[in-house]
Amino acid sequence: MSLRTDLEVILKLDGWHTRDALAKFVANLDESDYRQRTPAQNNALHLGFKLIANALNEAGLDMRKVLKPEVEIPWTTLSVKDHLFRPVMKAMTSKESTTELAKLGEIEGVWDTVMRFLGQNHGLDYIPFPSNADNIAPLKSELG
After folding, report:
1. pLDDT band at 144 (very low <50, low <70, confident <90, very high)
2. Which of 24, 42, 92, 94 has a CA positioned 20 to 30 A from the CA of residue 104?
3. Contacts 24+ apart (CB under 8 A), 137-141
4. Whether pLDDT at 60 is above 60
5. pTM of this prediction?
């Protein structure tokens, strides 16, 4: 859940229940549950999508071979995000947007699941998640 959703639930309580629920919420608050990923992590995620796209294309595994049998469609950073990463993310976390993923754990968990699928079903070698922030350049030109 989001911080906003959790607080909205508390605000819907009656009178003294609100104060008690808010006190309990604050006492048990783990701020890391509500942090979004950093810009460097966002860049790493999109660089990873680009690495997967390049590896799939180099292996001759266009989107038709992985997803759609009718049309030969080369992979892009955004198609990896929208057609591989996001569906797995939704199934694993019930979250709609990559911006909602927890900085630690969720991104890597989804990444590993996608890479395991590509390895087992298409023979693609594992691509480690990019983690060295100093070597990650923003990909705004490709992302639009």
Report:
1. very low
2. 24
3. 137/43, 137/47, 138/39, 138/43, 139/43, 139/46, 139/47, 139/50, 139/77
4. yes
5. 0.57
